[in-house]
Amino acid sequence: MNSRNAAATRARILEHAQHQFAQHGYAAVTVKAVAEAAGVSPNLITRYFGGKEGLFLAATRVRIPVSNSFDGERSALGARLASSIVERWFGMPGQDPLLVLQRASGERPEAAEALAAFLDSSSLEPLHRYLRASGLGDADARNRAAAIDAFVLGVSTRRRVLRSELGDPAELQAWLAATIQRLADG
Predict the structure, then answer these.
(1) Is the Cα torsion angle 139, 184, 102, 40 positive or negative in sign?
(2) Which PANTHER family match (predicted)?
(3) Which of 119, 145, 173, 184 could form a disulfide with 127 if both were Cys (CB 3.0 to 4.6 A apart)?
(4) How much is the mean pLDDT over the chain?
(5) Residues 131 and 146: beta-carbon distance below 8 Å
(6) Same domain, 27 and 71
(7) What's the CATH number where 54 sits?
(8) What are the DSSP calls for 50-77, one per residue?
(9) Mean pLDDT across the stretch 103-119?
(10) Which residues form the domain of 36?
(11) Same domain membership, residue 117 and residue 163
(12) Does residue 106 share a domain with residue 33?
């Protein structure tokens, strides 16, 4: 098998794994089911990922491009963050690695730890730095960043993890933008 086919096969396995972990949680997903969905042998999953645990870890690598949300005035932060959030929630239904981690965090302590560490480094701290740079004192910036982080995580948990409907994207975006802005402004 050449490296191009191996990379494509690995990507196909990850895509199916992300979908299944997001839909069913860690405990219910089997290597065999992911292999069948991806059209490969379970041995290939073991070869590429070392088994279910390695597959889960690879499927839950999360990246959030937050830097573009922090370009601009604080007065429009809510609109920028809400746009990014809604784009992610509607653009990656069922396969978002962040959703996979959120759903698995109740079953797997390492998933909860990974989610907390990811949110601290990729969301909370950059937001804290941005708010501090926008003229707020350190404690105020930290408190407002924590409030925004908790609000977004709560909405995400309620609407995505508990499988409630996300609703109309435009209405959701407007509500998120207004609420995030109120939290950012204090």
Answers:
(1) negative
(2) HTH-TYPE TRANSCRIPTIONAL REGULATOR BETI (PTHR30055:SF234), HTH-TYPE TRANSCRIPTIONAL REGULATOR RUTR (PTHR30055)
(3) 145
(4) 85
(5) no
(6) no
(7) 1.10.10.60
(8) SSHHHHHHHHT------GGGGSS-GGGH
(9) 78
(10) 3-59
(11) yes
(12) no
Do 43 and 9 lie in one domain? The reply is yes
Asked if residue 145 and residue 113 are part of one domain, the reply reads: yes
In order of 1, 25, 63, 147, the CA distances from 74 in angstroms are 52, 37, 23, 15
Residues 128 and 89: their CA atoms lie apart, in Å, by 23
Same domain assignment for residues 20 and 79? no
Number of domains in the chain: 2
At 30, the amino acid letter reads: T
Give the tokens for residue 128: 């804290």
Of residues 86 and 138, more confidently modeled: 138
Domain shared by 20 and 48, yes or no: yes
Residue bearing the bigger pLDDT, 23 or 150? 150
Q: Of the given ranges (20-24, 121-125, 126-130), which has the lowest mean pLDDT?
A: 20-24
Residue whose pair of structure tokens reads 């908790």 in the numeric block: 150
Residue 2: the pLDDT is: 54
Report pLDDT digits (tens) over 37-47.
Answer: 999 999 999 99
